[in-house]
Amino acid sequence: MESENKNNNKRVKEESKVKVKFITNDPNIRVTDTPIAVPVRLGRLGLSEVIHHLREEEGETSKPFDFLINGKFIRTTLDKHIKNANLSEEQIITIEYLEAITEPKREKECQHDDWVSCVDGSNFGLVVSGSYDLGVRVWGYDGELISTGTGHLAGVKSVCWINDKNADNLSFVSASMDKTLRVWNFNKSQSEIKALACLKEHTGTIESVYVSPDASRIVSGSMDSTIKLWSIKDIPNQHATTSNAIEKSNSKKRRLGANAADSTQPEIIHNITESLASVTVPNSQGVTVVNWTTQFQMLSGSMDSKIRLWDVSTLVANDTISTPAPLTDLDYSMESGLIVTAHKDRIVRIWDPRSSDETKSQTQSLISHKTWVTSVNWNPSSKYHCCSTSHDGTVKYWDIRTKIPLFTIDTLEKSKDKVLSSTFISNKIKNINDYSIVSGGTDSKLRIHYSDKQEQQEQQQ
Description:
Blueprint (H helix, E strand, L loop, with lengths): L1 H13 L2 E7 L12 E4 L4 H11 L10 E5 L2 E2 L4 H7 L8 E7 L6 E6 L4 E6 L5 E5 L4 E4 L5 E5 L6 E8 L5 E8 L3 E8 L4 E9 L5 E6 L5 E6 L3 E6 L6 H19 L13 E3 L4 E4 L6 E8 L2 E6 L3 E6 L4 E7 L4 E6 L6 E5 L3 E5 L10 E6 L5 E6 L6 E6 L4 E5 L7 E3 L9 E9 L4 E10 L3 E6 L1 H9 L1
Parallel strand pairs: 1-5, 14-18
Antiparallel strand pairs: 1-2, 3-4, 3-5, 6-34, 7-8, 8-9, 9-10, 11-12, 12-13, 13-14, 15-16, 16-17, 17-19, 20-21, 21-22, 22-23, 24-25, 25-26, 26-27, 28-29, 29-30, 30-31, 32-33, 33-34
């Protein structure tokens, strides 16, 4: 009799239901918002089956969904989530759902001659990479090498696109262990990279470089513990200079005759030995990363475990956030106003610099990497999504509303190689608006991890 009562109680518990209302911002997957009763024992996969049933979809290949209640992902059964969130099963619970983001299925490898230490993506489907082989390279969206530039005397540590207004005539900047910055012109139609200027004033390895929002200045951070601002608006465009020179040369040939000697125009590199402004960061033990996402404020991270927020006009640190471990990278989200940071203690952290209390400015700790985190980047199309890379050989993709990564790319984990850098790439020229992750590491390869949405958009074209 006692055993029968236990079975009855168990059956009642399993059949317990709660009324829910499903909502979504995606019109392509929308179902009725009329409240329905679902078993509280359901988890993410069970709720996905409910959505597929409401959409009259069948089959095991149907893509799973993710579910949120009050902005928090459901990662347990409904009853456990409701209990942990102090919600009542007697009320109608609103559940937001969205298509689950899954690990990319297609990957393109791009070979270098040494470690790929830095990458930067663009909306034109181009990636610029820097390597310990002293070179900078521009790659197409399809992973094909377009051009290579040389000039640095030591490994390249950081690269950044300067402008993306003209897809056929672009420029970027690189920072190196040789203590210099170089500004480059990339002419896509001629598949050619040419050096425009060499900037010299740092006395240590330049770890990071970033371009101002108006593309007229750059900021650099170095292991010499200084941050420097440079003007690049007066650097002549090599492509335009070369074109003018060729026209003058052709005109001269016409005057002198067809047999006139053909003289090749030398590449002109402007040497800049004085920055616009410079500041020494006290006790920083070296500046590892700089960021200039907004017009009036810059960010820096350093080995002293501090994030500093700088006034651009005065180069004065208006605010300092102390973190638990030395910083290796950071990124600022224009969408959310949040900062994501990478640390040597294997943790990715999220910060809200608008908080008046420094102890409350950390909003999230994302713990999944096994060792040193090397890079972090916000997805330009989302205020919730970011990626991280690590010496553990993995790339992880996060939604900051949950502490579990949405997926992990572990291509290098078995070989014991390290992932050093990451960026996002899109191709709006082909109307491909979704972003894919690009990574580089100690296996001397750049990898483009094409997102499922990009794959779908390509197939539809």
